[in-house]
């Protein structure tokens, strides 16, 4: 990284322009126009990213769980440059095609679990899930079951920001934002309640996926969508047996199983796909983020053989698509991303780093009494902060435990993410780029250690 920091007047200017013209997503606008941007990023290398003042930060969450190869990957820049120079864009509508999109589709299908057989391209995760919902309903209508329209998702899930995917999202603030809601979207209780595993003694048993299917009638359900490991909702790992149980339930009721692998796809969890941990074969897999490591905007919907076969038998037009479906430059970056993941054994690295991270978590848990429920699957990890972990007692809301610890980390130049959407939950997410090494991961743990000490002092 070149150390060229901007002058104070330039920083001031950008900050004023930002406050005036740029409406930021998932940000409190009133606070933003008072305080201005927290940080203006300018460049990065490896796991580190710099701001325009020249300060260097470790990116402990790969920005939005997407910059999996870290920063400064020249090969990705070259792949984009070459494709931009040759053919920056071409459409995939009306039978038009391009080589990077064709080659990437073949590559994705070769990596995807089970009988995956074709890819529909999008520009990101929300579009992928939105597409999955439409294709699931379309599939059933082609099968003569057009009543099957309901999409079931579970609490604490995050599936996107469009009307339908926002409705599927089981996090209050996103789900209810602006009063927009999609039709035929139902939330069920999730795996934190154990209900799918048949634990009828669980007080939250009512309302699990099985009950929703029974209540609404299987003839009305199109699909169930799940993240194998919930990300934004607080890094909740599916308990063993859960995904298999849901898949079985889906098969018994002619319901499609959609795996939202927007975060967990392409190596993040120490396997190529999150579902590989439980050997479940979804009917549809939605991906985005890690497919290009954030170097370009791309998503994909991977379809099972059965879905593809049904969709290609009809004379009807597939009346769905985006201008940027199969974008050649994005696909060229995707191909190079996967090449690097495979060549540099990054899936394996994520699996190896899980061990280091878990050791670090044990150390943190031993030293800091408020650290609870640590978990890591590959490099998708997190921990809870609790007032009394032995008795499962949460911190008072006003303490803002997760936010405070994340702030303390930020002061020490480590970027992490707080998940405190749910009342009484204070979760800190850790998901560094897959290129991270042991020494760097230990540095991350060291900073969290210091931040926790400072947080504990503030409690008095
Ligand atoms: N699904 C999951 C699991 C996600 O984490 C996200 C984004 N955080 C999305 C879908 C939506 O992706 P995008 O923001 O690219 O539309």
Your description of this structure?
The chain is an alpha/beta fold and 460 residues long. It has two domains: 39-72 and 346-458, Aspartate Aminotransferase, domain 1 (Alpha-Beta Complex); 75-343, 3-Layer(aba) Sandwich (Aspartate Aminotransferase, domain 2). It contains 15 helices and 17 strands. It has helices spanning 8-21, 29-35, 62-65, 74-86, 99-111, 125-142, 163-168, 172-175, 209-216, 242-252, 305-313, 328-343, 346-367, 401-411, 438-459; strands at 41-45, 48-51, 56-59, 116-122, 150-154, 185-188, 221-226, 229-230, 236-237, 256-260, 284-287, 299-304, 371-377, 380-385, 414-415, 417-419, 427-430. Strand 13 and strand 14 (380-385) form a beta hairpin. The longest helix has 22 residues, at 346-367. It binds 4'-deoxy-4'-aminopyridoxal-5'-phosphate. 4'-deoxy-4'-aminopyridoxal-5'-phosphate binds at residues 64, 124-126, 129, 158-161, 227, 231-232, 260, 262-263, 288. Keywords: Aminotransferase, Pyridoxal phosphate, Transferase.
List keywords for this structure.
460 residues, alpha/beta, Aspartate Aminotransferase, domain 1, Aspartate Aminotransferase, domain 2, 2 domains, 7-stranded mixed beta sheet, 4-stranded mixed beta sheet, 15 helices, 17 strands, 39% helix, globular, binds 4'-deoxy-4'-aminopyridoxal-5'-phosphate
